[in-house]
Amino acid sequence: MDCCADSWRRLSDSEGEETAPEHRSPLLGHRGAFWKNAMGFWLLGLCNNFSYVVMLSAAHDILKHQRTPGNHSHVDPSPTPVPHNGSSHFDCNSVSTAAVLLADILPTLLIKLLAPFGLHLVPYSPRVLISGVCAAGSFILVAFSQSVGTSLCGVVLASISSGLGEITFLSLTSFYPRAVISWWSSGTGGAGLLGALSYLGLTQAGLSPQHTLLSMLGIPALLLASYFLLLTSPAAQDPGGEEEAETAAQQPLMSNEPPESKADSSSGLSLQERWTVFKSLLPHIIPLVLVYFAEYFINQGLFELLFFRNTSLTHAEQYRWYQMLYQAGVFASRSSLRCYRIRYTWALALLQCLNLGFLMAAVWFNFLPSIYLVFLITLYEGLLGGAAYVNTFHNIALETSDKHREFAMTAACISDTLGISLSGAVALPLHDFLCRL
């Protein structure tokens, strides 16, 4: 934005010149277009990940599903702990919360695996519509569910919405200045914080989980409004920074030629080119896979077992606080790209794996004296995960050519999803093993 400030300063210094009024209006229009796009991508990130985060925050409640004839909520907001095994010192559900994680991530994994080979043939607008409809359907289905199985089907809808939306909007960033990546990333971090905090706050305030979920139906509508009404049509430009957003005044996205028409988009790449680009992304993909494997193994495999009986919080409330603090860390670090940038993301992967090892030992040997230590570790875990995400995609945007950038963004989306899927697959048997000790 320095160049924008300099331009505005130069115009302000030339008050006496007749040409000043003629230049000031276009500059304001260009600046307005950039900020509309920045806010549009922030809202898209917020809305896209919101349902996914809410389902993970509600995971413990979904698996404590106890509906009685007089109970109009699909879950008990403050369930009475029922040990999985009377001989186990853990307070366990019969099924690990990793089951909800897998329902929330496997459809996303499938979408992301197939997307680089054909999703570019589908226009962006239908993809966004499907994403919004699935998000709304997930809230409705889980809210009115009367069984764990039906609730998990609602979680699957949330996964389809989030996965399709992420791959769509990250690909869309290749048609805009690179700066929008940081706004998108900050929005996804905001989704984590607001999603977890809203579920925690509304249920703590006494609202039933059913009404809590139904109150969130405005989020899918906001997603559609952000895409169709707020984003402007991308001009043909080198997406190198904010200054490129000021090359021309732009109109709302629906009124102009869609981004699919860009001449150097990924639709013209051969399979050999795609494979070559994918191999060049592995130094970015592998660290991000490790980061997400470690943090979601913690979140959905260990948090449920880190139950402190010496606090006033119930087991379900402790789980919700873990999720909220993790998302707070993610939001802070995903919004940090303008403050600092990290090129070597493998260091973040190493630190996250150390977190996993420490908390695994804490579960096994039960040596942590206070839940507040876990709260601090959880916040730190979120900071590492969010920093890995935003810096990975920013580094990819810097290092790939215009021709390959859309495909690179699409292909790299598999990183976090693959790590999360692997963590869920490992956390399920670990949960059963520990609860049967």
From TrEMBL:
InterPro entries for this protein: Battenin_disease_Cln3, Battenin_disease_Cln3_subgr, MFS_trans_sf
Q: What GO cellular component is one of the record's annotations?
A: early endosome
Instruction: Provide the organism lineage as a comma list.
Output: Eukaryota, Metazoa, Chordata, Craniata, Vertebrata
Assign the protein's first listed, main location to one coarse class. Answer: other
Membrane topology per the entry is: Multi-pass membrane protein
The keyword Transport appears for this protein: yes
User: What is this protein called in UniProt?
Assistant: Battenin
Q: List the transmembrane segments.
A: 39-59, 98-122, 128-145, 181-200, 212-230, 281-298, 344-365, 371-390
Origin species: Chrysochloris asiatica (Cape golden mole)
